[in-house]
Amino acid sequence: MSAPPLKGHKACCAGKHRHPDELTARAAAQRVLSRGNLGALYVYICPVCGGWHLTRSSQGIAVTRYDPLAVREIQVRVAS
């Protein structure tokens, strides 16, 4: 799930997926990590658009490995 598009958003966010909250961003990071090609991802709240993005740099909250139990917990929280 992605956050609604912003009208007139800044170029720094133009090519990024914007997630509405930390939980949804962490779920997206878990999906990427499940592919097994990255060591860690980080999620952070964007000061420009207010949404949550993923990054490889250590400027945010670490999501360091794929964890199927964490994915299930996120799915349960999102569904409720």
Please state the overall shape, judged from the principal axes of the Cα atoms: globular
Helix tally? 2
Q: Could you tell me the radius of gyration in angstroms?
A: 13 Å
Largest sheet: 3 strands, antiparallel
**Unreliable segments of 5+ consecutive residues:** none
Q: Tell me, rounded to a whole number, the average pLDDT.
A: 76
- From the N-terminal CA to the C-terminal CA, the straight-line distance is 15 Å
Number of strands: 3
Q: Largest beta sheet: what is the strand line-up?
A: 2-1-3
Model description:
By secondary structure, this protein is α+β, with helices and mostly antiparallel strands. Helices cover 30% and strands 15% of the residues. It is built from two helices and three strands; from the N terminus they run H-E-E-E-H. The protein has helices at residues 22-33, 68-79; strands at 41-45, 52-55, 61-63. Helix 1 packs antiparallel against helix 2 (68-79). The model has no long low-confidence stretch (mean pLDDT 76).
